[in-house]
Structure formats: structure tokens, C-alpha cells
Amino acid sequence: MDIVDRATFQAELDVLRTREKAHTHEGDAIAAARRRLPVVEVDAGLELLGPDGPVTLLDAFEGRRQLIAYYFMWNPGRPAQEQCEGCTFYTNQVAELANLHSRDITFAVFSQGRNVSTPPADAQTSYDEALRYRDFMDWRMPWYSAQPSLDTLLVGRETGLFHLVCYLRDGDSVFETYWTKRRGVEAMDTSYALMDLTIYGRQEEWEDSPDGWPIAPASANRHPATPRGACPAPVYRPTPPRMGDAANLWMAGRDVDNSSRKPPSRLTATP
Prior knowledge:
alpha/beta, DUF899 family protein, DUF899_thioredox
């Protein structure tokens, strides 16, 4: 780490700023090209599971013109700490949906009922587990199971891997307009964007950083596609790596005594 005077620091930053502006302009150009992509029609009647029973893909729009669906990886029958860290990391950052709604966009999570290394189990059972996980995490976005139609919804893609898919509704017709996976879902993220502004960055092994820069430890059960250290944790917990008894009770839908923790979170789930 070189320590310099203010003028030297600003001169180096100005050089970098030129590259940052070029990066921003290229991003604008890519977004413009994305808006001009052709679209593919998708069966609007494809079945999803909702909190009150079966619904359709069209229903998931909630009457809005566009839908962004995050395809959440799921590990059937496993406790909270064995669910996908990456999906938890990204979903945890989608909080206020009003801004999307103001542009006629619905955001929803589509639980896949499986992941890349675990086959699916009973769809309704996995969905009930996923709903308890959503409540345990105190998430408020619409949450469906895509398992009944997953192979059709993600045709030509790797089911069980997290995806972000954009849809457009024209009357009762639905069209897929864009999709991405892996690091493409960083569009949902603010934490990494802020980390990238700091001198230590994301503190991950793959980054090009000076020798001696800190590296955050990887979790033992982390899937290779997910971020390091993004362990599932209730939003009110200050230390994500340790989840305690509450994490072991959510799967069974049992009541958790949360009276000693502030602010409270909705951990009581319906079996």
C-alpha cells in the first residue's frame, strides 16, 4: 500500500475515473442492446405452486406488465444452514419492491425444489419447507414453487442452478425477454458493488489483489457457484456464521422463542 500526498492520490484517481466512465457507458450500451433482443413466447398457463394452491405463470405477474423471477436453488429436507448460500445472499438484498412496482415490474422468487447436486423431492413438501425458510429469513417478496413446470421454464438450461429470468406480459400472453445465471445475478446485489469500491474489495481468492490483502474464509458447505461467507442468517443477527437453535427448528415448522432478540422476526411457521 503506497502512501502519497493528496495531489498524487487525486491524479491516480482521475486516471481510474476515465476507465470507470467508459465502463458505465459500455454498460448503458449493453442495456440498450438488451432492450432490443427478440423475445420467445412461454406458455402463460404453466403451473406454479403458490401459498393458496396452484397458480399459473401469468398469475405471478400480479397484473403488472413485467416479471423478474429469481430461480432459487433448494436442498430438499435439509436444515437452514444447508440451503444455498448464494441464493440467500442475493435474495437477502431484495427488500423494497415499490421501486420496481413503480415501473410496472413484479419481482418474485421461484423455488426450484432442487439444486445442481440434489434431485427433487415431493413438490408440495419442498415448497412448504421453502416458505418456512422465507419466513425464517423475514423475506416479504412473492414466493412460488416452479417445480411442477421447471423443465419447461428453464428449457435448455441447467435446472437446479440459480437463474434470473425476465418476462413480459401482453394481455394473456407471456414472453421471455432475458435470462442470466451465476455472476449475472449480481444485478440483485448491492453488497458486492459497495465492496468493490473499497481497498480490500470482496476479499475473495479469485480477485486480483496485492499480496497480503485479506481473504475471507470460505464456508465448508459452500457450492462453487456461490459467494464466500454468505451464510444464511436471520436479518436481525449481527453474526451470520452462527445460527443457533432457531436454524435447526425452522424445517419442522416449530415455534421459536424469539422474545429475547430485538428486533423480532417472524420465525413461527405453519406446518
